[in-house]
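Hello forum,

I keep getting stuck at the same step: I have a sequence, I want structure tokens, and every attempt I make locally crashes halfway through. Rather than fight my setup again tonight, could one of you with a working pipeline run this one for me? It's a single chain of 170 residues.
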Amino acid sequence: MDLSIRERIIIMIVIFLCIFSLCDIGFAKNIEKTFNSKVHEDFNVEFCEGKIISYDGINNANILISKDHKDIYLQITDLLYPGAYAKFSVNIINLGSLSAKIETLVTNGFEKSKIIKFRLLDEEKIYNTILKPGENVDLDFIIEWDKNSVFEADEELSFNIQVIASSVQI
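Reply #2:
Ran it on my machine without issues. Output:
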């Protein structure tokens, strides 16, 4: 069976297109893996330092940063009266090589309490700041016994806060 030149060219084009598409798919997957691993490695926003700035009507308050620096833990005991509070400041730093923007704060434990309120002091600063690599921002907040509460503060209270950030192109 002899094939004409035209048929041979068509077969060669089909074979070429098949090989090209297979190479292109492999190349695209390799680029995607490289990009995803780079973004994962280069994006790192952490809590680095936490302190109690002031307090009133509380005998004991503690702040701890987790070993991986992704969570802060707050513990408050011995609230003396409604209106008692503790003011905290936690430094958030961008240790990655990509700029980052804080999207939200995840607070856990506050929903279990009938008397304790979490209040962010400068929401605009936290949610509008773009952290370039190496830059940081202070997260200042108050945890307080609701002044209008009719419930007693008889339990030890523990809370957890996480920061959710995303990479930003500038």
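The helical segments are 5-42, 123-128. If your local run keeps crashing, start a new thread with the error log.
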